[in-house]
Structures are given as C-alpha cells and as structure tokens.
Amino acid sequence: MISKILVPTDGSKASQKAAIYAVDLAKHFKATVIALSIVDKRGIMVQALPAGETAKQVIEPIGDYMRKAAEVYVGEIKKLCNKKGVLSKTVITTGHPVECIVKEASKAKVDLIVLGSHGKSALAATILGSITYGVIHKDTKIPVLIVKGK
Questions:
Q1: Radius of gyration of the chain measured on its C-alpha atoms
Q2: Burial degree of 11 (CB within 10 A; 0-12, 13-18, 19+)
C-alpha cells in the first residue's frame, strides 16, 4: 500500500512532470505527497570579491535567493495537490541532494520516491553525478519511480 510519496523538486521540467505523476498516483491511492526541495550551496563559487566583502556576505544573499526559489518549487506542488484534493506537506532543506532525499524519505517513512530524470545515459549520469542516479544507487529499501522528463 502506498500512503506517502516523496517528490523532490528542483523546478526543472523533469521534476514538474514527476510531480504531476506523483500527485495523480497519490490521488489514486489516497496518499499524502511530501514535496521536497533542497538548497545545494555547494554550487556557489566566489571567484573574486570586492574590497571589504567576505565570502559569507556574498553567499548569504545567494542562499536566500535559492531558498526562495525552493519555496516556489514546493509551493507549485502544494497548489497541484490542493487542486486535486491530495494531502500534502512541504519540506525545504539544505545539503547534498542525494543525501537529503534519502534522509527525508527515511525520516518521513515514505513508501515511494518519485523523481524526474533528464534522460542521461548511465555513463553520463555517473560522470555528471546525476541526482536520480545517486538516489537509485544509494543503500535504501524505499522504491524509486523515475519519470522521464522528455
């Protein structure tokens, strides 16, 4: 029985397509959707700083922007759930996406993770560090459903 579905989102078309699929699945099973967005600050690089600026002063506004974007992403899923009459919860966290997805899935005791995929090959995913590839190869007993973005 599926009673909780975790849907990680980064706002991409692939994650939006996965969210639609997950919400429809949740409606069918009368399950709750947990919309998760992760602020991954590892991608922020500071090349050159103006005089008097510190890395923290520069990175904090970027982190705030990333958090606001994450709020929009999970908010879109919440609206879709409301429209379809599906119970939902939103979660925003900071860290490495693969680790955060697996941790939240375990913490929330979800029955299924629904992820969008950009359709990269396994070799490209390994080289590029695909989130989807990382989650399906992480040591977790939770089933993962992959929805192709294309």
A1: 16
A2: middle
Residues 6+ apart with CB under 8 A from 5: 22, 25, 26, 31, 32, 33, 34, 110, 111, 112, 113, 114
What is the distance between the alpha carbons of residues 65 and 117, in angstroms, rounded to a whole number?
Answer: 24
Any idea what the CATH number is for the domain that residue 139 is in?
Answer: 3.40.50.620
Task: State how beta strands 112-117 and 4-8 pair.
Answer: parallel
CA 56 to chain centre: 25
From residue 30, alpha-carbon distances to 2, 96, 103, 114, 149 in Å are 8, 30, 24, 16, 25
End-to-end CA distance of the chain: 29
Range of the domain at 46: 4-148
pLDDT digits (tens, 9 = 90+) for 78-106: 999 999 999 999 999 999 999 999 999 99
Q: How many domains does the chain have?
A: 1
Maximum CA pair distance of the chain?
A: 58
**H helices present in 30-130, as ranges:** 55-84, 97-108, 122-128
Q: pTM for the whole thing? A: 0.84
